[in-house]
Amino acid sequence: MIKILIVEDEEKIARFIELELIHEGYEVIKVNNGRMGLELAEKGEADLVILDIMLPEINGLEVLRRLRRSSDIPVIMLTARDAVMDKVSGLDAGADDYITKPFAIEELLARIRTALKKRTVSEKSDQGLLYCGLLTLDKLRHKVSYDGNIIELTNREFTLLQVLLENKDIVLSRGTLIEKVCGYDYFGETNVIDVYVRFLRTKIDDAFKVKLITTVRGVGYVIKDE
User: Fold this and answer.
1) What is the pTM of this model?
2) Which of 109, 126, 143 finishes a domain?
3) Quick one: which of 164, 137, 176 has its CA closest to 225?
4) Are residues 133 and 122 in the same domain?
5) Which of 99, 107, 156, 196 is the most exposed, having the fewest neighbouring CB atoms within 10 Å of its CB?
6) Are 17 and 112 members of one domain?
7) Percent of the chain with pLDDT strictly greater than 70
8) Same structural domain, 139 and 96
9) Which residues contact 80 (CB under 8 A, 6 or more apart)?
10) In total, how many domains does the chain have?
11) Are residues 87 and 139 in the same domain?
């Protein structure tokens, strides 16, 4: 279960957020001062922090600055509506997002989901994993699977798929793909990329009834992040 740390000294606001988060299925830790919030965050007690700026003992901006020395945990700052400099300072100090008081709980929940999603994507990338829908490419283990089903690829098929996944939403020309997949000194057939795209489509698109690689006529190929 995802655990969220609320660091807020206004009890009514903290309790309101706590109840809504519990209702959404999150586990919640709630503290009312900056020092305790910093200690819990540094110990890795939570997956995300909702951090007020005006706090007793240590203010929220200082908590964030100290926290960023050792942790990249997602932090959403709570700021006063007219505190523009607080927002700027918070983002400069490493906050992932901020929300102004008063706020709609739906907006806070949306910002939490976005921050957690970014963290998940970052962690997956750090682990050498590339994704597109149910397709997973593991660069470290040199494996590809679709919805858990292993797909056997040759080295060049794997490399082509990896290049396209690393450049999702970017149309890559055949010339660029030949250089990345076959090497700069390749002097073979110029339609080699078309051949390997066909192989990939047979093993992935046809086998699992999906549309993975899109042809951009006259340009090249792209995998769209859908």
Assistant:
1) 0.55
2) 126
3) 164
4) no
5) 107
6) yes
7) 90
8) no
9) 53, 54, 86, 100, 101
10) 2
11) no
Domain identity same for 100 and 164? no
pLDDT grade for 69, boundaries at 50, 70 and 90? confident
Residue 126: predicted pLDDT = 54
DSSP states of the chain = --EEEEE-S-HHHHHHHHHHHHHTT-EEEEESSHHHHHHHHHTT--SEEEEESS-SSS-HHHHHHHHTTT----EEEEEETT-HHHHHHHHHHT-SEEEEES--HHHHHHHHHHHHHHHHHHHHHHTTEEEETTEEEETTTTEEEETTEEE---HHHHHHHHHHHHTTT--EEHHHHHHHHH-TT--S-TTHHHHHHHHHIIIIIIHHT---EEEETTTEEEE---
Same domain, 96 and 139: no
- What is the mean predicted confidence (pLDDT) over 168-184? 86
The alpha carbon of 76 is separated from its chain's Cα centroid by a whole number of angstroms, namely 15
Identity of residue 210: V
- Residue that terminates a domain, selected from 101, 126, 151: 126
Same domain, 195 and 112: no
Label residue 80 by pLDDT band (50, 70, 90). Answer: confident
Retrieve residue 21's tokens: 């988060």
* pLDDT tens profile 88-124: 777 777 888 888 888 899 999 999 998 888 776 655 5
Residue 147, pLDDT > 70, answer yes
Do 192 and 112 fall within a single domain?
no
Identity (one letter) of the amino acid at 26?
Answer: Y
